[in-house]
Amino acid sequence: MQLSLPVSLPDDETFDSFLIADNEFTVAYLQKFCDRKTDSNKAICYLFGTIGTGKSHLLFACCHEAKLNGLQTVYLNMLELREMPSEIINNVVDYDLICIDNLHEIAENEAWERAIFDLINQASEREHQPRIIISAQASPLTVGFGLPDLVSRLTWGAVFQLATRSDDLLRRIIQFRLEHRGLEASEDCIKFLLTRVDRELSNLMLIVNELDKKSLQAKRKLTIPFIKQALDL
To answer: Among 61, 140, 197, 204, which residue carries the largest CB count within 10 Å?
Structure first.
């Protein structure tokens, strides 16, 4: 069985639209990691952090960056793939950059743990040695994988913990993403949003997209009354 590709990626989840905040070194490392012209003695990179720290955004950004550098990329979301046969990833080792999101979702799944372990081994044996970027909610040692050899492989390369998003940082992220789309919103508007909606980062980004669309359609600036109307709050 072969994975149906390509997977569609959000076109606005790039390094330019990521508020770096306390993740400067991690982002700089990833940008170089996605460029074949940059030599690296490590072919795997592992990111971990709690929900809302921007893991998926960074994996999307890595795919975009690698494509700009002429590399073939693939994005795998284990949240979506965990119920499928692990054989569907048999051929992804042929890609230059392999991004694997939500790896914690396959913890204690023997078939999937073995498949990821085999993928890392196969990649290390290839002459062109594809680079692998993995994200999860915890470090390799604490996720709860049942295969000790997989834990060992996941620590072969660089391991980064992403900074937790404070309330102040969430406000800055929303402001940053709105400005990235050419929108302006007062501090009061952003505080209103954070008290009335689900504060999980992926949900906030969906709300930014919706406000962008509704504001453009109505040709109106972002105000609290307009936000209430646009989001039916």
So the answer is: 61
- Give SS3 for 205: helix
Residue 15 in contact with residue 105, Cβ under 8 Å?
no
Indicate if the pLDDT at residue 6 is higher than 60. Answer: no
Residue 78: which domain range? 15-161
Token pair 């890392």 in the structure block, residue:
120
76 and 153 fall within a common domain: yes
In terms of C-beta density within 10 A (0-12 exposed, 13-18 middle, 19 or more buried), how is residue 148 classed? Answer: exposed
What would the pLDDT profile of 135-161 be if each residue is shown by its tens digit?
A: 999 999 999 999 999 999 999 999 999
Instruction: Report the DSSP pairing between strands 44-48 and 131-136.
Output: parallel
Q: Are residues 75 and 111 in the same domain?
A: yes
Please give the share of the chain, as a percent, with pLDDT higher than 70.
95
Q: Indicate yes or no: pTM above 0.85.
A: no
Spell out where the chain has E strands. 44-48, 73-77, 97-101, 131-136, 158-161
Residue 122 makes CB contacts below 8 A (sequence gap 6+) with: 93
- Residue keyed to tokens 């050899």: 149
